[in-house]
What we know:
This protein is an alpha+beta fold and 484 residues long. It has 2 domains: 5-245, Aminohydrolase, N-terminal nucleophile (Ntn) domain (Glutamine Phosphoribosylpyrophosphate, subunit 1, domain 1, 4-Layer Sandwich), CATH 3.60.20.10; 264-452, Rossmann fold. It has helices spanning 18-26, 55-58, 61-65, 112-119, 129-143, 151-158, 208-214, 253-258, 270-284, 300-310, 333-343, 348-351, 367-378, 410-413, 416-423, 433-440, 449-452, and strands at residues 5-11, 35-41, 46-52, 71-77, 92-96, 99-109, 164-171, 176-180, 189-194, 199-205, 217-221, 226-231, 234-239, 250-251, 264-265, 268-269, 291-294, 318-320, 344-346, 355-360, 383-388, 427-430, 446-447. The strands form 6 sheets. The protein has a 7-stranded antiparallel sheet, covered by helices on one side.
Amino acid sequence: MKEACGVFGIYLPGADVSHLTFDGIFALQHRGQESAGMAVSDGVSITVVKDTGLVASVFDDRTLYGLNGSLSIGHTRYSTAGSQDWSSAQPVYRTVGSQSFALAHNGNLTNTDQLAERVGALPGIGLTDSDMMAELIAQSFLANAEVVDGLHDALHKALPLIEGAFSLTLLDQDRIYGVRDPHGFRPLCLGRFGSEEEPTGWALASESPALDVVGATFVREVDPGEIVTIGPEGVSSDRYAPAGETDAHLCIFEFVYFARPDSLLRGKEVHGARRRMGQLLAQQVPVEADMVMGVPDSGVPAAEGYALASGIPYGQGLVKNRYMGRTFINPEQGAREKGVKRKLNPLRENIKGKRLVVVDDSVVRGTTTRALVKMLKEAGAAEVHLRISSPPFKWPCFYGIDTPTRAELLAATHSIEEITAYIGADTMAYLSLEHLVEAIGVEKGFCDACLSGNYPTPVAISPAKDVAPPANEPVELQPALPGV
């Protein structure tokens, strides 16, 4: 299971913004660790630098000082489509006559077959969905040369043809643009430099902490179906999708796992929502224990909430290697298994002989959770009671998380009792979907398809995702999961 990407954009007249773009995408590193890149415009030409690796390994001072310009977009990537090499790194760049633009994309499209045919992709030539979007926008210039006036008009022509999840930052020589799909699956927000009365510049980011780190003030979230245009005239907004055709469906897992705890989403700080998830989890499934501990990092706020509501002391049971990436989004199964020991180590004196409540955010395949429980018991834990601060993950995602097939999703094919036996915990329980929504504090406007199977848009049923609901007969246990 992989998260998609982080996108950033900045317009700050009179300043070279490459270092600020670096800071912005560095703050979004958690959203993608495969590649990083930025496109910078000096008002005449656009320069793109991108490579595989983390932000700090792709860019250094020498590289940044050579990127001059007052407007820029940036990107951190984890693939949901396409290869994992340099050719799939972003931003994507296109030149059409005298026009040129760059595009950074967070999300995943659901009509790529139709788009590939429309843009004339040759069989066997691999294109990411971001490449196809760029081609479609470029073709909007060519096909409508007499009526299209710049990138803004081209976006209005191209975007209605695109289905699925996309939060975009784009730039041409003079302006940057922010776009969200009509359902708002992936987050995007707007920030301001200077005062409200006298703004000196603007920024766009997947998450609000990227605005904080560059010194911009959070203004608002970009609406589903909206295009925000930022340039010499200031900031303006219009819609490419009529209001009646938009319906907010922010991915609910942004609150559970993906977003930084200091992010603002739907007017709520993520850390507080995660803490309330733990409090409701303690009320829903109490247990007698000696210590509550969280799995770093996203399980920690929920563990604090569980301890607060239950009265069981909160303690540290694991030390995290801060130089490790997120095992959740490692691309290979073997890497995930090895990543647990590389990433986490038990505090033996703290956990020896104790009955532990271990709070984590989710269970996908169960591989890392099983290794974690084994590690704690080998370190002397008397009991391990696993509590998950989200409902069972049962359905694949088509909107920006590259989940495995239903057959590989542990909760899709096994009961809680079977999962408990497989991972080796003494007890296990999930937070209900109703309590998850209550913890967030916003009743509507989320996509919970991975938890409920209710997809907001039509999705293709394919063997790769196996999205069709199982028949009403017992599901055969998967032989790939030993120990059940």
